[in-house]
Structures are given as C-alpha cells and as structure tokens.
Amino acid sequence: MNHRLHASHLTLGYDHKIIADDLSVAILDGAFTVIVGPNACGKSTLLRALCRLLKPSTGEVFLDGKSKSISRFATKALARELGLLPQTSIAPDSITVAALVSRGRYPHQSLLKQWTRADQQAVEEAMVATNINQLASCSVDELSGGQRQRVWVAMVLAQQTTLLLLDEPTTYLDIAHQIDLLDLLRQLNQERGQTMIAVLHDLNHACRYADHIIAMRDGQIVAQGKPAEIITAELVEQVFGMPCMIIDDPLSHSPLVIPRGRFHCGSAQ
C-alpha cells in the first residue's frame, strides 16, 4: 500500500530526556492505524511528531515524498493536509457548536479569501456526518462528554484533510460513548477514505477497529501489521507484561485479549 506520511530515524524527547530513538514508521494511506503500548512508551510522542507538534532532535517526518519534510510546510498549508484531535481540547466559554466547528475552516481563510459558501457547506457536512447538526445553536458547555467529543471531531472534519490524527480520543468517555465514537471514526474512514491514525489504550478496541496496529514499548516499535497477524499472547506479554490468552472475537473475528490475572471469575464462594 502507498503512504503519504512517514517518519525516518526520529529521535524524540522533552527537556533533553529522550523518549524514542531511531524511530521509523510509514502510515498506510486510507487505513485506520492504531498505536498501542503501555503508559509512557512514546505513543503520543510519536503522534505529536507526525503532526509537527513536537520537533525531532534528529530525523525527519515527510509528507508526499522524501523531499517534503513537514518542517518546511507553512502552518496553514500543513493544516490543510493534517487534522489533529489532541488529548485535551478546551472550548472558549459559551461558544456554540456551529461556531466551534466553523473554526475548522481557519486553514482555508486568508485576507483575500474570507468565509464562502464552500466553507459553510464543509461545516454543515461535518455536523451531519457526526450527527450533531441538531445541536448547532447549543453552547458546547451544555453538552455531554460524548457530544462534545463529536463536536471536536466535526471541527477536524471541517478542515477537509485526508489525514486525521487522534490522540486518545476515547479518554474520559464511558464504554457506550467509546464504541459510538470508534464506530463513527471507522465509518468515516471507510466511506470517505480518510487515513486515520489514533492512539488507543484499549487493546481490544484497537484489534476490532484497526486495519493496522503499531505496538510500542520503551520508545521502540516492537511489532506492526494487521491485528490478526501480530496480536499474540507472546506479543501482549512482551509489550504490556500481561499474561493472557487470545481468542476469536465472535462478532468482529478479530483477536480478543483475555487477561489471565491472579484471580478468576466463577470460583466457589
């Protein structure tokens, strides 16, 4: 498969502390790629580097060819190619849903090109796609956590990028809203052909929704590939230090990770 976005030999860190070294990865076009691994393994650090929120100490991230480092893109030009949903998003007080989603059109604005019918159409389509069009006049402050997350997704969709990066998008959501959001992202990926790259904590969610998994530990990529090809009990123990068994998910037929733990349900009381 082709890949527009790839990273070559990255060294990444914060305040002179190296998190990942000699990291290379290619993101498959049109696929839903999920990055998994234990806490502090470098998942979000890698995602931040892929969208230029973090500058590598060494190495480069390329978009559309080895000659096009993302470091050379103008800010608005890059925002027309890459959309980002960060871990924590804070909306201005009392802003309406429609106004927040409209901010996704900022990369398409300039002194000579103000708001157009095409911008309005992009916002309306994004709200319909995320099923929040009926909330357009509501204040974001009034919404539930699941609704707010859909609004942020709509804002990123309004950018109309072909690459969408999501950093732990299901954090703080209950299980029903997690599944609802992942279903939405998978639907957008399949119907629009958008390339999705997400950091997820739940390995079973990753197995069910991802086309491609990147498993990390200690700042290194341990394995990558289709869930059915790489997710084994041995890999899970290597990456997470968790003994488990792998069975077939009866609904998705993807790998289903069953932790062994120290205690087992069903024992006599």
UniProtKB/TrEMBL annotation:
Domain of life of the organism encoding this protein: Bacteria
Residue span, ABC transporter domain: 5-243
Topology term for the membrane: Peripheral membrane protein
Localization annotation: Cell membrane
Keyword tags: ATP-binding, Cell membrane, Ion transport, Iron, Iron transport, Membrane, Nucleotide-binding, Transport
One annotated Gene Ontology cellular component of this protein: plasma membrane
Family matches, as PROSITE patterns: ABC_TRANSPORTER_1 (PS00211), ABC_TRANSPORTER_2 (PS50893)
GO biological process: iron ion transport
InterPro entries membership: AAA+_ATPase (IPR003593), ABC_transporter-like_ATP-bd (IPR003439), ABC_transporter-like_CS (IPR017871), P-loop_NTPase (IPR027417), Siderophore_ABC-ATPase (IPR051535)
Gene Ontology molecular-function annotations: ATP binding; ATP hydrolysis activity
PANTHER family: FE(3+) DICITRATE TRANSPORT ATP-BINDING PROTEIN FECE-RELATED, IRON(3+)-HYDROXAMATE IMPORT ATP-BINDING PROTEIN FHUC
Role: Part of the ABC transporter complex HmuTUV involved in hemin import. Responsible for energy coupling to the transport system.
Stated family: Belongs to the ABC transporter superfamily.
Protein name: Putative iron-enterobactin transporter subunit
Gene it is expressed from: fepC
